[in-house]
Amino acid sequence: MVDASPLTGLALSLLSVTVLLLFIVTVGFSGYAIVLRIAYERRNRLWASLTERWSKPVLSAIADPTTIPAVHTVVEKRYRLYFVNFVLDYSQRVRGEELNTLRSLAEPYLGVIATRVKHRRTEVRLRSVQTLGTLGLPAYEKVVLEALDDPQESVAIVAARALARPEYSHHAASVFEKMPRFSGWEPLFLAAMLAEFGPAVLPLLRDRLRDETSPEWLRAVDAIALRLQLDPRGADIAVAALESATDVDLIAALMRLIAELGRPEHLPALRRFATCASSVVRSEAMRALGAIGDAGEVPLLERGLGDPDPWASANAARGLLSVGGIRLLERLSTAHPEHAVLLGHVAREADA
Amino acid sequence: MTEALWGLVGFFNHLVLLYFIALNGVYLATTVLAFTALRRLSITLKALDSMQLIGSNWAPPISLIAPAFNEEATCVESVHSLLSLEYPGIDVIVVNDGSTDGTIGRLKEAFNLYETDRLATGSIPTSSVRAIYRSRRHQNVWLIDKENGGKADALNVGINYTHTPLFCAMDADSLVEPDALTRITRPFLIDKDTVAVGGVLRIANGCTVEDGRVTDVRLPRNFLARLQVLEYLRAFLSSRMGWGALNATLVISGAFGIFRRSAVVAAGGYATDTVGEDMELIVRLHRYHREKRLPYRIGFIPDPVAWTECPESMAVLGRQRDRWQRGLIQSLMRHRVMLFNPLYGRAGMLAFPYFFFLEMLGPVIELAGYASFIATVLAGRASLDFAVAFLSVAIVLGGVLSLAAVAMEELTFRRYPRRSDLFRLFALALTENFGYRQLNAWWRLKGTISALRGVEGWGTMTRKGFSNPTGETS
Fold it and tell me: With contact defined as beta carbons under 8 Å apart, do B203 and B228 qualify?
């Protein structure tokens, strides 16, 4: 062995000591993990015994709600949060009256949960809002409504989801107001959430779709929600909105709305999009022209068969089938052998 | 002359020491990042039920693309397993990659397939498609029979016939957990710019599999397979989770990942001239979006799980590692423009250099380093300080990282319910750095040499099959 220079030796020693310290910390960390495992197993055993204890009475209460007070007598005070979790798990599998019974079962213990919606830890707030949203409405409506302002987006969206039911449509405006918070979320998800408010929300959706000062992504969400709600007036608004829309997602959402709920008088507004630079828009234009058009749209759709985008050409072929039936497809297959494969596909697709 | 040579060796030894510090330092950093992210995620998962959040109103349809080559023995069970996934809208597209056994016949019989058409929605160049079949029993099951062209080619065919916005790329023999799709779509829900998400791959050897589902999780009996369990835990929970937290994921396993179809088509689909098509695609997705200045996110989440069978023999494992190394080198060399290029953000400035210098060149440096260190010690030319530091950083720190990975698994997902398995994992974490790590480096070095020699192909991968409750294998 040779000696390292003092400076190198010091650096190497420091390195070794650091690694040793890290090793000690990790061994401690591993020990902690083992201790937690033991605690976890104990908790699991407790949970299993509580589940066994509560399952029968809860099932009886679902069958006969008059036994609800009897269930409360078997829930010890120290296990009340466990009981709420137990009921919450159950609630994922039931609906209607059975869900109402579960709400009654949880009701005496929800006060504790309500105190946790301002907890400093996000996960506690999340769980509390989800619990109250599932089991605590309408009693804790105000608490859930306040959670729309939670600093964490995830908590706010859980609150919004909980409120998005026809019976709470009076809160739709509050949810609408918070929507800009969710700009990164998938538009279809947001639209489905808004649509769950039911028909009462239609005026709000229409107003915002008309409002050119609203962000275009938000108007796209509204257009999707109107389509999910099958709102025929939505198509008229969509046609007007097409005039000024610039965002591809908004234009596509508007055209999808027109395709499903539009009328032949909307056709002139659509035709110019059949040659748009965006393949998404062209594809939706073909879909809409085929869906609400008639024989007059055949030339445009026929041209669409040659669109380089496979979705646009397929929608053009489907549109031709819709406006001219199988005979038109057969005739076009002969006239345009280069599109025969596509037309054959669409014919068989319809057949299947 | 001799002194000069020893001087060079000494210099090299210090370089190797720096390499180990850098490598394990990065591991340590990703472990710390992963730990924070994992804790947050696992608590959120406990707090919030994904399916309840997503609901059935928003569940984007997914096409499950399963390439199959000579999968006669397992293909029917695999498709049944896919059909049993708890997800509202799935298309199952099995792509028969020119199998020479009875794969097609078994599928035709089991699912009552009839020949039909399906509209092609993409035009990624592929080998020719011979026929398309659809099931009479399950309208969402499709079989595309094509000329042999390799896994990447089969996936491209599947993508060309995908009608859904998302697709899941998987191995035909991957066992996907029932709720994995619900969980893995969550990033697509909360961030509309998400283009790809990877999930965790776990080792199914030793576990009990019933009806295509893992019903009893335990460590494999085979020692080599056990070591791979540990390796996968470290790779997925520490490394990929950490890189994912930095938004610099460069690898999504080919055995289980979800992609936005339009993004993959725009980027050109899977490359068919590499054995690392899974990594190559992710690197290319980064490049494509960065160069076009398009918003995107490539994520990794640890709770959606797919199970796979790992090799139990040295020969097969060696071939697998050889192939992985070749795939890594091919991907990195093809996209070397990304190296330290700020245009590519964290992927180019952090992840790419890590893979390039520490993973790609690692086996060469590591093995040469061990040889040089041993020679120096035997010649009595190493200082005690250096020897201790070298062993600390190369061996002990490796053990620290493995221990941390096991502890993280235990603090978050606890997939190994038997306490004895947990203790075995901890013991393995302390021992795997003596021998297995060096063996791995040797296989990867061979892979590096194969890559330099331009060796192509996957090599033979024999599988034992999953264990059913009676202990028999399928």
Answer: yes
Chain A residue at shortest CA distance from B409: A33
| B337 Cα to chain A: minimum distance (Å) | 30
pLDDT band at B57 (very low <50, low <70, confident <90, very high): low
Contact B426 A30 (CB under 8 A): yes
Instruction: Report ipTM for this prediction.
Output: 0.80
> What is the count of residue pairs from A and B with beta carbons less than 8 Å apart?
152
Judged by a CB distance cut-off of 8 A, whether residue A33 touches chain B is yes
**Is A150's Cβ below 8 Å from some Cβ in B?**
no
Structure-token pair, residue B114:
């009839």
Q: State pLDDT tens for residues A129-173.
A: 999 999 998 999 999 999 999 999 889 999 999 999 999 999 999
CA-based nearest distance A276→chain B, Å: 19
Residues of B in contact with A3 (CB under 8 A): 383
> What are the chain B neighbours of A32 within 8 Å (beta carbons)?
407
The verdict on B389 touching A (C-beta cutoff 8 Å) is: yes
Residues B73-123 have pLDDT tens digits of 778 888 888 898 888 889 999 999 999 998 999 999 999 999 988 888 888
What pLDDT is recorded for position B458?
57
Higher-pLDDT residue of B203, B41: B203
Residue type, position A247, single letter: D
The minimal CB distance from A1 to the residues B383, B406, B426 is found for B383
Digit-coded pLDDT (tens) for A331-350: 988 888 888 888 888 888 77
All residues of chain A having their beta carbon less than 8 Å from the beta carbon of residue B136 are: none
**pLDDT above 80: residue A236:** yes
Is the CB of residue B23 less than 8 Å away from at least one CB of chain A?
no
Interacting residues of A11 by C-beta distance below 8 A, sequence separation 6+: none
Query: What are A197's two structure tokens?
Result: 């408010």
